[in-house]
Amino acid sequence: MKVVKLPKSKVEEFLSSLQDFGEVIIPKEKTEHPGVYYFDVMENPSEMAWEYLRTIIPPKKYLHKPREVIFKFHKEQGYQEVIEDKETKRILFGLHPCDIHGIKILDVVFNRDYMDPYYYARRKNTVIIGLSCLPDEKCFCKSMNTDYVEDGFDLFLSDIGEDFLVAVGTSLGDDLVAERAHLFSEVEEEDRRKYLAFRKKRNESFRLELDISDLPYILDLEQKSPIWDELGKRCLTCGSCSMVCPTCYCFNVYDTLNLDAKSGQRIKQWDACLFKDYALVAGGHNFRENRAERVKNRYYHKQFRMVEQYGKPSCVGCGRCIDACPAGIDVVEVLTKVREGSYVTH
Amino acid sequence: MSKPKIGIFGLTSCAGDQLMILNCEDQLIDLANAVDIRDWEMAKTNNDEECELDIALVEGSVAQVRDIENLKKIRKRSKILVAIGTCAVWGGIPAMKNDVPRDIMLKEVYGDKVEFIESKAAQPLSSFVKVDYNLPGCPIEKDQFLQMMASFLNGDMPEILNFSVCSECKMKENICQIVYKQEVCCGPLTVAGCGARCPSHNVPCSGCHGPIEEVHYDAEAKMFQRKGIKPEEIIRKMQVYAAPAWMPEKLMEELQHESK
Ligand code: SF4
Ligand code: SF4
Ligand code: SF4
Ligand code: SF4
Questions:
Q1: Distance from CA of A275 to the nearest CA of B (A)
Q2: Domains, chain B, ranges and CATH?
C-alpha cells in the first residue's frame, strides 16, 4: 500500500480542492449541542470537526437513505423509475474505521448476492476518505476486529501530530493524490516512528471489551435464556438502536397515492425488527409477536445469523446504539452477561 | 366513479383539525375537485344536513351531552366515519382532568350559575359509535391527512402506523431528550407521523398523537425512575393529550407500585 504525507497546514486546501470532484460530506458539530456530531455537506473546510468521534447517524444515510422514492406510477402513463442522487458524485470524508467496516458490510448485503440498484447507483459514485481516531468508553471496535481497515477506502488519513499519513487504497485515491501532488510529500523515517507510537497509544486506549470468540455457538446454547425475557421487559422497542446502527439495513416498501386517484409513488423507508408490525404477514400472523422475541432478534441477527451467512458479525463496535438507547440497554453488557449466564435488570 | 360525498364536523373541540384541512392551501383545489363537500358548517354555506355521506370526518371529543346525539346522527348518514385529531381519537386535552367531577370543574370555571353548558367527562368517538379510521394529531398533520384522503379516493384504507416517534426522531438526527437532557419524553410511547416535530425543536415529545399499539408502560415508568424523575412529573406530562389512552391502565399502576 502506498503511503504519502499531508501536512496539517495544507489539509484545508486539500479539503476545498476535493469539491472539484463533487459533493464533500464531512462530520460537523451541532452548534446548539457541543460534542454532538452529524454528517453534512461541506460548505467551508473550517466546518470540519476533526476531533469528532461518532455521529448520531452513520454515513449509511447517503447510500441507504432513511426514506426515498423508488418509482412513480400512473394509471395511463405506466411507471417511471426514480433513483435519487443517481448523478451525484460524493466524497464521504473523515470516516473512522468502524464506519468504513459498516459500509463494507452494507456492500455485501446490497451488492453481492442481490443487487440493489438504488444502493449501487449511489455507491459507485461514492469516494471514501477515512480518518484515524482515538476511542472513548463506548467504542469496542477492537473487540469486533474493525479497528483497522486494509481496504474499503480510497484514502485513509492517520493523525501523527503535525501531519497526516495518507494511505492510498484505490487507483481513484491515487489519482486524487496525483492531481494535488504539490500538497503531499514523502514519508520519512521519523514519520514512521510517529505512526507506530500513535498506533500503540490508540491500541492501549480501548476501555471497553467484548469477548466474541465462539459467540454464535454460545448464542445457540442460550436461545432459551431468561435474559431475553428480561431484556423484553426493559426495551421500549423504540427502534433507536436500529436507526443509528451502521449495519442495520432493513427497509419497508409501501405506496403513497395522489389526490388525482390515478397516480402515486413507491417509497422505501428504514424499518426495524423491533417494530411490532415488522414480522406481521397477510392473514394476521406475526412471526415475532412478543416484544422479547423482537429484541432477541436484533442480537441473533447481528451476532449469529450474519456469521452463518456472511462469515462475520454485523456489529462494528461503533457504540452508537449504547449512546442512543433511552432505556440504557448496552449491547456489550448484554452479550457479556449472556456468556456469563447472568442477567438481572435494575 | 362519482365524487365521494363528504361531511366535516366538529364536536367539542378547538376546530384546529378543520383549520388544518383549510391550511392545505396548495392541495385544496385538487381536494375540492376530487370530492363533493356536502356539509361543512365551518367553511361553507348551503350545507345539506340530512344527505347520505360517503365519508364523515369528525373532530373533537364527546364532552357535552348533545355531542352524543350529533355523533350518532353523523354515523347513521355515513359509510366511512373517520376520527380526526387526538380529541376524537383519544379524548385529547378535554379529557386531561376526567378524574375531577364535572360539576366541581364547572363551578370552578364558571361560578355557581351554569345553565348554558351540559358538560360531561370527555370521551373519544369510539366510546359511542364504530370508527372506521383514526387519524390522530393535535392538530392533525397535513401530509397524513392528504395521504388518507388519497387512499380513500383510490378505494383503499390508509396505512396504520405502528412505530414510535423515536424512529422519526433518529432519522432527523436529533439528540435524544431522555439520554442527553434527562427529560420526560413521550416519544417511545407515541405513534409516529409528526416527523418528530417537538424533539426537532429541542423540546421533548408530549405525546400529542397518542400511543402506539403496544405501549410499554412499565418499562417507561422504570426507565424514568432510574433517572430519578418523580412519578407525578411523568403522570402530569402524559396526562395532557391522550390521558384516557394510557392513564387508567398500566402506567398508573406501575408508577404507584414503583414509588412505594
Ligand atoms: S450494534 Fe451498536 S455498536 Fe454494533 S455496529 Fe450497530 S450501533 Fe454500532
Ligand atoms: S434503543 Fe433501546 S429501548 Fe429502543 S429498541 Fe433499542 S434496545 Fe430497545
Ligand atoms: S428525543 Fe424522545 S422521541 Fe427522540 S429518540 Fe429520544 S425519546 Fe425518542
Ligand atoms: S413530537 Fe410528540 S408532541 Fe410533538 S407533535 Fe409529535 S407527537 Fe406531538
A1: 6
A2: 5-153 (3.40.50.700), 165-259 (no CATH)
Q: Nearest chain A residue to B223 by CA: give it.
A: A327
Residues 6+ apart with CB under 8 A from A289: A279
One DSSP character per residue, B92-111 reads TGGGTTTTS-HHHHHHHHH-
B191 CB near ligand 4 (under 6 Å): no
**pTM reported for the whole predicted model:** 0.93
Position B153: which residue type? L
pLDDT in tens, B37-49: 999 999 999 999 9
**Test mutation, B24, B142, B154, B159, chain A, max A CBs within 10 A:** B154
B197 is written with which cell numbers? 416535530
- Can you tell me whether residue B133 is helix, strand or coil? strand
Lookup result for grid cell 402513463: A77
Is there an atom of ligand 2 within 6 Å of A227 CB?
no
Rounded to the nearest integer, the mean pLDDT of chain B is 90
In chain A the first and final C-alpha atoms are separated, in Å, by: 50
pLDDT of A12 strictly over 80? yes
Q: What is the ipTM of this complex?
A: 0.94
Q: What is the pLDDT of residues A264-296, one digit of tens each?
A: 999 999 999 999 999 999 999 999 999 999 999
Of B178, B202, B209, which is best to mutate to test ligand 3, by the most ligand atoms within 8 angstroms of its C-beta? B178
Question: In chain B, which ranges are continuous DSSP H helix?
Answer: 16-22, 28-34, 65-77, 86-90, 102-110, 142-153, 165-171, 177-181, 197-200, 217-226, 231-246, 252-259
Distance from CA of A324 to the nearest CA of B (A): 7
